[in-house]
Design brief:
Elements: E1 8-11, H1 24-33, E2 59-64, E3 83-89, H2 93-103, E4 107-109, H3 112-117, H4 119-122, E5 126-129, H5 136-145, E6 149-152, H6 166-176, E7 180-182, H7 190-200, E8 207-215, H8 240-250, E9 254-263, E10 280-289, E11 294-300, E12 308-315, E13 318-321, H9 350-353, H10 355-367, H11 377-395, E14 401-402
Parallel strand pairs: 1-13, 2-3, 2-5, 3-4, 5-6, 6-7, 8-11
Antiparallel strand pairs: 8-12, 9-10, 9-14, 10-11, 12-13
């Protein structure tokens, strides 16, 4: 598609009118029924060009974790023509049975570890890890060491204690020669997809400034999680839905950070009486980027009201601006960049119609020689590790910290 380098001021605005915010408990209760993001199923403008098969082969996949969000079955492996769900697992037997029912898998395992250990016997080729965040890196390393391609839910690395796993996951991927991909939904949201296409065509010119915002109100009761891993969660330990608006557009990285934390009176954060000793319910980071630009990335648990995952990009030749919240739909004027069609019968899914696009990208990465997935290991680490250093900066009252670069 030919995109002019000129006239790239693309503005969109969706303003939440004076509707009045629900009480905090009502917001929390509503969110628990449908986790924020899963109700955002508008994939944006879709091309009229029919989907074309890229392989006649099915990848044999195992899925780990249905969990609180029903995440294992939400990414359309069971309907994609190039995937066969062979085995599933969840530590909760009821959730495991539900995942099996939804994916039509023939086998179940009591744990992800057991499924990985039996990968050869089941002739598994790939695994989708949709377990609790603290287990992602450890299970990904184990799967790579057993010769499996890996798609992992976010984040790739969880918290300061797991920074030592960064060289280990890099080494495991290199030694195995297998694909690692992180399922960062921002990558295939309509606005980020458009940003990436414009950037790749040179339409923005030199990158100057990017914003990413992830607002997800915590509520007085917190957000459910396996063994309470979210309780007191430092916002920048879960930075991918904001940082992705830069990394999934440019595939650049963050090199330095200064971050301001805002304390919260919500029970999970009050007086830092939580497993992370974290007082902050919101953290806003200012980054230097590898291309000489800047970025402001906000992760906010403490602001009541409608949640949002949104971003904007400014370059020397033009910018892309989007904003939306709650049930308000994104309004994009002017350019009209279209996402490709998915296979017939494959729903795009939640988080801006991104779920199945990530699955399709992963399967192409396995089956199509030379196909480079959007959120490969380097981009996954660049997206995630920067947030960990942002929280470290916040704990040091905004001290500027250099961020190690993934190799």
């Amino acid at each position: 598609m030919n995109i002019s380098r000129k006239n790239f001021f693309i503005a969109s605005a969706a303003t939440v009118a004076a509707m009045g915010l629900e009480a905090a408990d009502n917001v929390t209760a509503g969110r628990k029924k449908v986790m924020q993001g899963f109700d955002e199923t508008d994939a944006g403008k879709i091309s009229k060009v029919a989907w074309k098969p890229f392989s006649d082969r099915k990848v044999r996949v195992g899925i780990a974790g249905e969990g609180v969000c029903n995440f294992g079955s939400a990414f359309a492996y069971q309907t994609h023509p190039n995937a066969e769900v062979v085995a599933v697992t969840d530590l909760n037997p009821a959730k495991c049975a539900l995942l099996q029912e939804r994916t039509k898998a023939k086998k179940t395992y009591p744990s992800c570890e057991e499924m990985i250990k039996n990968a050869a016997a089941d002739r598994l080729e790939a695994i989708y890890i949709a377990t609790d965040a603290p287990s992602h890196a450890r299970l990904a390393i184990m799967a790579l060491e057993h010769g499996l391609h890996v798609a992992s839910a976010v984040p790739a690395i969880f918290g300061t204690d797991q920074l030592e796993l960064v060289p280990k996951i890099i080494a495991a991927a290199k030694a195995s020669g297998k694909l690692y991909m992180m399922n960062e939904t921002t990558a295939f949201r309509p606005q980020c997809y458009a940003m990436r296409r414009i950037f790749e065509a040179g339409g923005f010119g030199t990158h100057i400034y990017t914003e990413g915002e992830y607002f997800h109100y915590w509520g007085k009761g917190g957000i459910p999680s396996f063994k309470g891993w979210r309780k007191g969660l430092p916002p920048q330990f879960y930075p991918t839905h904001s940082n992705g608006f830069y990394t999934c557009t440019t595939h650049g990285s963050f090199t330095e950070v200064t971050c301001i934390g805002v304390k919260s009176e919500l029970p999970d954060f009050k007086d830092a009486a939580n497993q992370f000793k974290n007082p902050y319910g919101s953290e806003v980071a200012l980054f230097k980027t590898s291309d000489g630009g800047t970025a402001r990335m906000a992760v906010v648990w403490g602001a009541a009201g409608f949640g949002t995952e949104s971003g904007r990009f400014h370059g020397s030749n033009g910018c892309y601006i989007t904003s939306y919240g709650g049930q308000k739909k994104e309004l994009v004027a002017g350019l009209g960049i279209q996402k490709p069609q998915l296979p017939p019968g494959v729903p795009a899914g939640g988080h801006g119609g991104s779920h199945a696009y990530l699955t399709d990208d992963f399967l192409r990465g396995i089956l199509v020689p030379g196909h480079k997935v959007c959120v490969d290991l380097k981009t996954a680490l660049d997206t995630t590790v920067a947030g960990i250093y942002a929280h470290m900066s916040a704990l040091k009252d905004g001290e500027t910290l250099k961020i190690p670069q993934a190799s």
